[in-house]
Amino acid sequence: MRKLIACLSVIAVLGSTAITSAIAAPARDSLTLVGAGSTFDAPFFTQAFDSYHTKYGTTVNYQAIGSGGGIKAFTTKTVDFGASDVPMNPVTELPFAVSSGGPVLQVPITIGGVSVAYNIPGVKTGLHLTGAVLAQIFLGTVKMWNDKAIKSLNPKVKLPASQITVVHRSDSSGTSYIFTDYLAQVSAQWRGGVGVGKLPNWPAGVGGSGNPGVAQLVQSTPDSIGYVELAYVLQNHMKQAALENKKKQWEVPNLKTVAAAAAALPHVTATDFSIVNAPGKLAYPIAGYSWVLLYQHPSDATKGKDLAKLFTWTATTGQKFAKALDYVPLPANIQKLDVTTLKKIK
Fold it and tell me: How confident is the model at residue 31 (pLDDT cuts 50, 70, 90)?
C-alpha cells in the first residue's frame, strides 16, 4: 500500500455502486468509469476505489495528472469525472464546462494538509517558519538558509550558509492554489505580486510535476524546500517545517491540526471554499478540500447513475480509509451535503 501511495501517477481500479443507507447494492457489471485530475487525491482514491471495485465490480481508470489537467479533461468531456483541489473558476473555467455538458456539480471529497517539506543536511527536525518568511523564500528575496530572517525564528537550529533551492509545481495544480492562497493571506508582497492561482508565475525555483514530482525533487536536492500534500510527506518520511498559525502557535500538519482547520471553517461551498490560515489554536494554516467535478445531466445515463453511487459511497463509507492514508475524514455535515448534491444527478 505504501508503495502505491508514492507512485508518480495513479491508475486506480475501482468499484461502482454503493453501500450506504442512501444506495442499494447493485449487481456486478463490467462498466468502466474514467476520471482524471488531482494528485492530492491520488493516495486516497487508490485505496478507496480499489476497495469499491473489489466489492462492487465497476472498473474506474483514474489518472493523477494535476487539477488543471483534470479540469481540462472534464471540460472537454474526455473523462467521466474530474478532480481538483480547488473548485472551477466561475469566470474562466466553469462557463466552458457548462457550455460543453450542462450544469456542473462540485462535491468536496477529501481534506488534506499541504506540508512545507525541506531537505537541509544536518537539520533533521525543529525548523520553524512564519508565513511572511515563507513568502520571502518563495519570492526569492530570502536566498540563504542562514539568512537572519530564518535564524531569528530558529535560534537553536544550526543553519548552513548555503543557498536555498525552492521547489514548486510545474503543472496547473490545486495544491499550488491552496499554497498561494495561504501566502496571499499572510504576505501583502505576495498578494500584490504573484497572487493566487493554480499556475502562478513563480519568481524563483525549479518545478516538479505533481505532488510526487515535487516530493522527489525535495528529497533528491540538498538545501531545498517545497510544498507537498501531507500524505506524500508522511509516507515518504520527509522532514517538514512547523508554521506559525493565526493564533501565533507553531503547528506541523497532521490529522489533528488539519482537522482543527476544517472544524474552524465548517461551511464550505464551491464559491466559499478556502480554509487556509484558519482561526483556532491547533489549526494548521495550509489545508484544503479537494473536489470531484460531475455533470448534473450526463449524456450516458448508466454512467451517471454509477457515478452518483460511486461518489456517494466515497463521501460516506469510503471515508473509513482517510485516516490511514493521512487525510482527515469528511465531517458529518459535509457528508450530508455531498449525499444531497449527488442526488441531483439525473
Answer: confident
